Amino acid sequence: MLYSNNQEVIDLFDKSVAEESIDYSHCAEYYKHASVNLGNGIYAIALKNGSIIGYSKIRPKSSKVKKYDQFSGLFSVGGSALKMAYELSDIDEYALNRELASTGIRGSRPGRFQKHQSNFLDYAKFSAPTQKNGVISNICYKIYGLGVGGHEFIEKKYIDRFLSQDEVYYGDLGVRFEVLNPQDATFGVKFADPFFPNNPFKRGDVLVSINDKAPKDLGDLEWIVATLPLGEEAVVKIRRGNEGIMHTFRVRVDKRFGGMLLPDSFLERFNVSISNDFVVQKVPSSGAFSKLKNGDKIIFINNIDMRQFNVKSTAERNQLFQELFTKIQGQQVDALALWQDEEKHRNQARTINNDILAQFQSKESSTNKNGFYRQLSDSMDNFINAEVMPREYTSNANKSQDDFNLESFRGDEILRDSDTKSMRTIYDIYDSRSETKSKDKKDSIKEYDILQKHGLGINFLVDRKGFQFRVPLE
Q1: When comparing pLDDT for 122 and 383, which is higher?
Q2: Spatial separation of the C-alpha atoms in residues 114 and 225, rounded to whole Å
Q3: Which domain range does residue 340 map to?
Q4: Closest CA to 237 of 264, 267, 206, 270
Q5: Looking at per-residue confidence, does 340 or 232 come out higher?
Q6: pLDDT of 187-232, one tens digit each?
Q7: Last residue of a domain, one of 368, 385, 402
Q8: Distance CA 326, CA 75 (A)
Q9: Do residues 95 and 234 share a domain?
Q10: Are residues 231 and 201 in the same domain?
């Protein structure tokens, strides 16, 4: 119940009442008693379930903030219950068809619901301006979402997900998707993370289903991936290549480290920071990037000369890294597929040859060492078990005359600096005299030994105080 400007009692659910006469000032007064000021213009609202929540693109500095979702900006506040609280509801028939109020610390304004929230950052739309941490309501205490500013607000579905988690978590499959055809909900891999453990995907893969569920739109796809349980295997079906060959992969779900409100370069999982001019600013104490040092300037990543790029913003830098790492991931996937195919054919050939060998050995007693069949079988046995030199898997794209030869990264070889024409020594970052410890396979980046053997690992060439070092990532 609310009052009109003439103090006439109005039932908001009576459609015969003229909506434009509603006075929402009482909603503004209610907000003051159902919100808490955290300082710096940031407020949080109380819900009837006992939670106190808010939204901010960066974590509020208040000590009252107990949980912060750095992906979506939602946060929760500890403390005692407030004098008043809101009942959070899904968008219902009333909200779709009647006038609502956008309310915050600066008062209330009438408006109408316009569009549902379609993914974590594509918020619901309202006709009137929304206030940051304001509410969209029909009556003072019943609300449909949390304002983020502009004309946007966060719906109940996304708030409930945040409140249901003890710790912030978003699932990840090692890829970022793009919409290929919105009419038939077709999605393709746009970026693929080579650091994601055993990532089988590459750019151009077309998604068919995840756990036998075909997403109906991009928001649905992002929701499906985000809610995959950590550590479980997801069955992902894709079509690959011009022929659209179906592939089914079992991918172990990992947690997401970048994206949404966070930077997303595929380096976030390593806690490494690199500036827009590719100077290392922060390195982890352990892991793949721990051999880098603060102040290292990245000159090459594999055969790509980073000096050719003029990055003007953090967003450009992150997109460049995603493009570069996606290219490397595609080369690795192709190389491993070729290696696995050849290994399969070699095993088939060994089986056939062993069958033939067994037939020859049965022709004559094994005690007759001078027999024709015995000599022939010995020759075949030597041939079958002979070590075969492995093929190189480096793609043709890596062999163009403009590409940097990865072999020059290795050992204590001499590299002529392209700018100064001086001669400098490249030292391998790993001392050959140091003891090499075997690594648990689960801690390695996908089939590391095979990729390194064929020149398809990830290598950084850095300039460190005038000397250049090759840093291979494991």
Answers
A1: 122
A2: 27
A3: 319-385
A4: 206
A5: 232
A6: 999 999 999 999 999 999 999 999 999 999 999 999 999 999 999 9
A7: 385
A8: 33
A9: no
A10: yes
Residue 455: phi and psi, rounded to 5, are 75, 25
Residue 351: predicted pLDDT: 77
Amino acid letter, residue 339: W
Q: Residue 308 phi/psi, 5° resolution? A: -80, -10
Of 353 and 300, more confident: 300
Looking from the CA of 423 toward its CB, the CA atoms found within 13 Å total 3
The reply to whether 41 and 74 lie within a common domain is yes
Q: For residue 242, which phi and psi values (nearest 5 degrees)?
A: -65, -30
- Judged against a pLDDT cut of 90, whether residue 384 lies above it is answered with no
Residues 11 and 135 occupy one common structural domain: yes
- The per-residue pLDDT for 346 is 78
Provide the CB-side half-sphere exposure for 188 (13 A, CA): 12
Tally of domains in the chain:
3
Burial classification of residue 415, based on how many CB atoms lie within 10 Å of its CB (0-12 exposed, 13-18 middle, 19 or more buried): middle
- Report the alpha-carbon distance of residue 458 to residue 335 in Å, rounded: 14
Tokens of 259: 């994206």
CA dihedral sign, ordered 70, 215, 125, 15: negative
Tokens for 389? Answer: 């030199």
More confident residue, 442 or 456: 456
Q: Does 237 share its domain with 335?
A: no
Between CA 246 and CA 344 the distance in angstroms is 19
Query: pLDDT at position 431, please?
Result: 40
Q: How far is CA 183 from CA 11, 122, 186, 216, 404, in A?
A: 42, 19, 8, 10, 43
What SS3 state is found at 298?
strand
Q: Give the single-character DSSP code of 119.
A: S
What span, in angstroms and rounded, lies between the C-alpha atoms of 23 and 166? Answer: 40
pLDDT attached to residue 143? 98
Q: Are residues 195 and 71 in the same domain?
A: no
- The reply to whether 183 and 145 lie within a common domain is no
Tokens 């809610």 belong to residue: 227
Whether 470 is in a domain gets the answer: no
Give the start-end residues of each E strand in 59-185: 65-68, 74-77, 87-88, 100-104, 107-111, 113-115, 124-126, 135-139, 142-149, 152-155, 171-172, 175-181
